[in-house]
Amino acid sequence: MMPKRILPILLIGLLVCMSATIRTAEAAQSAIVVAEGYSCLGVDKSRRDTEKEARTEARRNAVEQAKTLIKSQTKMKDFQLEQDLVEAYAQAKVTVVEELKEGAGWYREAAAGDCYRYRIKAEVAPDSKALEQLAKKAELTDDPAAPLNVRIWTDRKEYRQGQHVRIFLKGNRPFYARILYRDAAGRTIQLLPNPYRRDNYFHGGVTYELPEGDKDRYHLEVSPPFGGEELILHAGAAQLGDLDLVAAGDVYGVKTRSADIGIKSRGVKIVGGPAGDKAGATTGVEFVENRVELRTSR
């Protein structure tokens, strides 16, 4: 999909082409944290064993920091629901977004000898089944006291060639957002932010429509090619990581490889370091990925 007014840097096939049946995928909520682990050499530990132990501790600490972050950011009225939420993070999956070099590596302690410190920026994704059970107990979609949740949807399920598509966006708390579109040929453009709308901060509890009046200069008109396509939303409580972009009329073309887009977006700006780091109070931010899948047709 692509707005009609576009530079010839991209093929005509990238013109807006959004239609047919839409299936909204579940939002993937997570926390992005900075964590570290360390270990020291011993009589029964090799350097490889020491490094492995530090890596394991860093992942474990990432989960603990995510739980602490969620508890500090949520103010749920029902204590049991809050405990269930924390438990969902206790069973979390940890993915290393970035290995941090500063302050990491081998060093020597006077008392312990040679030690190794491992530092990471990691995504901690709560157990999906546990979240499903939690969702059955309470409606948390629009609750500002619940974890960050940002939804994206369109005005109808089916579109015909020549029709215009309206996108809607709503979060339960303030958030920063990036919206991408991947067409049937696998090419990706960025609708938000764009060359004329660089501000991607949104208030919670408000439904936004895109494109929005004078803020956006593109419009979304259904046109070929047709096939499987999708809208991709990345949102966070802090500004998202940067992608490699190229100007393409009223939007941006995305030069970053598709496989790297998620990781780079998760490179959120985190202030502070691991737990106990006096340099900053914030050690993590909440993150949401949500997708709307489309199949285009005439």
Low-confidence segments, ≥5 residues, pLDDT <50?
1-27, 273-282
- SS-based structural class? alpha+beta
Integer tally of domains: 2
The number of helical runs is 4
Notes on the structure:
By secondary structure, this protein is α+β, with helices and mostly antiparallel strands. The chain has two domains: 12-27 and 149-295, no CATH class; 31-135, no CATH class. Helix content is 19%, strand content 35%. The chain contains four helices and 14 strands. The strands form two sheets. Strands 1, 2, 3, 4, 7, 8, 9, 11, 12, 13 and 14 form an eleven-stranded antiparallel sheet that branches. A hairpin with a 3-residue loop joins strand 3 (93-109) and strand 4 (113-125). The two termini are 14 Å apart.
Labels describing this entry:
alpha+beta, 2 domains, about 300 residues
Short description:
By secondary structure, this protein is an alpha+beta fold.
